[in-house]
């Protein structure tokens, strides 16, 4: 497991991953973001700690540990984020902007809820899916067109028990969802191999359609991932699927079943 001494490598990986998602940041900006992930104010402070070579690793900020209860919430349209990713969200609704400000100025915790319909401007509980995600707002800035951009690290799945639009921003009551492995789980190693094979085929076909001479490398290297849930979430965040299909994957708590569904979807689209 990486600790704060790997910060520069993490910054390079972060920058490459965001570039793959057409989000461009400078090297210095990636260093500042990694510093915030460790709960340190800025890169200069983290760099000093690295140089000092302190014995114990710095842990990620306390905001990375989602807790049940009420948190600022952000409804989103036509996009399903998965745990493990760092995602730029863009907000122009007043209540969403207020919720993001509250999160950023406080513990930085935010609940992200996908709307069932993109036509609803002020969603309530019935207008969002039951399963959402919990994240930390790393950066928040206002763009020239008036929108706000929130770079958000996604941590865990949550069950949304209530969703309320308050005067000072949307809030949600949530319960943290843990992965649940079924007793009759099939051979996970076989499913891992199948999913990786289907993903390679899908990536190769997609690369050909776009005129590439090679398959773009995905970070982190998916071939080395042995955890079914992490692999499923990584693949799901990179492939094109319908919103209902992606939301169904997000709501599948059994990691092996989730990966199995990924393999079936990739095979059917091959």
Structure description:
The protein is built from 8 helices and 6 strands. The protein is of the alpha+beta class and 270 residues long. The chain has a 5-stranded mixed beta barrel. The chain is globular, with a radius of gyration of 19 Å. The protein starts with 6 loop residues before the first helix and ends with a helix. The N terminus is likely disordered. It has 3 domains: 49 residues; 115 residues, Archaeosine Trna-guanine Transglycosylase, Chain: A, domain 4 (Roll), CATH 2.30.130.40; 82 residues, Methane Monooxygenase Hydroxylase, Chain G, domain 1 (Up-down Bundle). The longest helix has 22 residues.
* Percent strand: 15-25%
N- and C-termini, Cα separation: 35 Å
- For CATH, the homologous superfamily of the largest domain is named as LON domain-like
Radius of gyration: 19 Å
User: Main sheet?
Assistant: 5 strands, mixed, barrel
Number of strands: 6
Mean pLDDT: 77
The structure class reads: alpha+beta
- The H-and-E topology, N to C, reads as HHHEEHEEEEHHHH
Helix and strand topology:
Layout: H1 7-20, H2 27-37, H3 43-52, E1 69-76, E2 86-91, H4 94-105, E3 109-114, E4 131-142, E5 148-166, E6 169-176, H5 188-209, H6 228-238, H7 243-250, H8 255-269
Parallel strand pairs: 1-3
Antiparallel strand pairs: 1-6, 2-5, 3-4, 4-5, 5-6
